[in-house]
Design a protein that fits this description.
The chain is an alpha/beta fold and 415 residues long. 21% of the residues lie in helices and 30% in strands. It has 9 helices and 26 strands. The chain has a 6-stranded mixed sheet, with no helix packed on it. A 6-stranded mixed sheet has the order 16-13-17-21-20-18, sandwiched between helices. A 5-stranded mixed β-barrel has the order 22-24-23-25-26. It is elongated, with a radius of gyration of 30 Å. It starts with a helix and ends in a 5-residue tail after the last strand.
Length: 415
């Protein structure tokens, strides 16, 4: 016993546990993409997964145009020293001007097409206006303050690739090539419920012995951020019967069931047993910290992921395991996050389980990216998840010394 508690016998501590890498691979291999698609308004497609390649049949911008408010000229007509040219026309954004009369200049505004025979724009700050004469100094280079047709996108360019999660910038990009509607995979329906007779809904009075259900809000947040539809069955009583009923109901209404709590070995942990009775359990213990219990299985054909109840463990196991599984079901082409190398800004003693410490990045005097860790790393310390920007990964049985290179997973890379 001594051997186990002092951390010397890592084999005894990790016996019967699956490695985090193997658990993730098992999950990813078991996830089956939902292939149905729908075509929706681009402005409503944030966080959805693209189900088509988008190729442009226009140039962006469509015409050579001015990058500044100023004056369009033929650069060959400018020279060293002072010049003055007569303003022959005025071109606003949205208009098409006339061919630039030889030896004249055209008033032009940002985004307005360059008139024929003009090839540069003088900034309005660099001229003085005397009646209809525009005075300036020096030669103007061809192309100065000009945005060329197709310099962003040209005809035939593939601008978006199927399997990509759409961010605000992709919505804008699709709109820039004229797409009003976009084909996306249909929303994944995720059934969720929460076990624990100690749980109280926020807004209600907290009776002695009770705690607020924070995992519900966390799960709504993370599922919304990755474009899922939520079927929320709320809190379920800590009994085997109620748990079985909830699992069956959730499975009948969704593509995936996710629960929190009730998967450890206590007598009040009914989720694992319920799943074994009504479905199949494929794994339930992973050698990681936080989050050792993590259940995975099926209820008929509906996959099931049981997250641990501890709030930090639920948060971590969601991002590290449930999110890649969901991404594959959603049709995403890339489901595993890439850790980035950073410098440790702390010392840490490793243990027999892979650790995901809550950390955040800053830049030190030598311009290195350094990870700091939250001082309290307990699996119930939800403050750590809000303070942090990502997970610092501590490999099994590895002591980390300040200044050493380590791997870091930014939370934003996980969704
Ligand atoms: P369990 O996994 O059910 O053994 O729960 C482990 C710990 O997490 C216990 O301290 C629970 O009170 C707590 N817990 C379980 N579910 C939640 C929840 N939804 N919100 C906040 N804490 C929870
Ligand atoms: Mg419980």
């Amino acid at each position: 016993m001594n051997k186990v508690t002092n951390g010397c016998d890592s084999h005894a501590l990790t016996q019967g546990l699956m490695s985090a890498e193997e658990a993730l691979q098992q999950l990813i291999n078991a996830a089956i993409p939902v292939l149905e698609t729908e075509t929706i308004d681009v402005t409503l497609s944030l966080n959805r997964v693209l189900a088509e390649n988008c190729t442009s049949d226009i140039k962006v911008p469509p015409l050579d145009n001015s990058a500044m408010d100023g004056y369009a000229v033929a650069s060959a007509n400018t020279k060293e020293g002072n010049s003055s040219l007569r303003q022959s026309q005025r071109i606003c954004a949205g208009d098409i001007g006339d061919t630039l009369e030889n030896g004249t200049i055209a008033r032009i505004f940002t985004g307005a097409p360059l008139p024929k025979n003009a090839d540069a724009v003088l900034m309005q700050e660099d001229v003085t206006v005397k009646d209809d004469l525009i005075c300036f100094n020096g030669r103007i280079n061809k192309g100065e303050n000009v945005r060329y047709a197709g310099e962003d996108i040209t005809i035939g360019d593939k601008v978006l690739t199927s399997g990509l999660r759409l961010r605000a910038q992709e919505l804008g990009l699709a709109a820039s090539i004229g797409k009003a509607n976009i084909k996306v995979f249909r929303k994944l329906k995720v059934g969720i419920f929460f076990t624990g007779d100690e749980l109280t809904q926020p807004g209600e009075t907290l009776a002695p012995g009770k705690i607020y259900n924070s995992n519900r809000a966390t799960l709504h947040g993370v599922l919304n951020s990755i474009g899922c539809e939520i079927v929320d069955l709320g809190n379920i009583a800590d009994t085997l019967e109620a748990t079985k009923e909830a699992l069956l109901l959730a499975a009948s209404q969704s593509d995936l069931v996710i629960t929190s709590g009730g998967i450890s070995v206590g007598e009040e942990d009914h989720v694992r047993i319920a799943l074994e009775e009504i479905g199949r359990l494929s794994m339930w213990r992973v050698a990681m910290k936080p989050g050792k219990p993590l259940a995975f299985g099926h209820i008929d054909k509906t996959p099931f992921i049981g997250l641990p109840g501890n709030p930090v463990s639920a948060f971590a196991t969601f991002y590290l395991f449930a999110a890649p599984f969901i991404k594959k079901m959603q049709g995403m082409s890339k489901v595993e996050p890439d850790p980035i190398p950073v410098v440790a800004g702390f010392n840490h003693k490793g243990g027999p389980r892979l650790e995901y410490l809550r950390g955040r990045l800053s830049t030190n005097d030598q311009a290195q990216t350094v990870a700091e860790i939250y001082p309290h790393q307990g699996s119930g310390v939800l403050m750590s998840t809000s303070w942090a920007d990502g997970f610092v990964i501590i490999p099994i049985n590895t002591d980390v010394k300040q200044g050493q290179l380590i791997h870091y997973l930014p939370f934003k890379n996980l969704s």
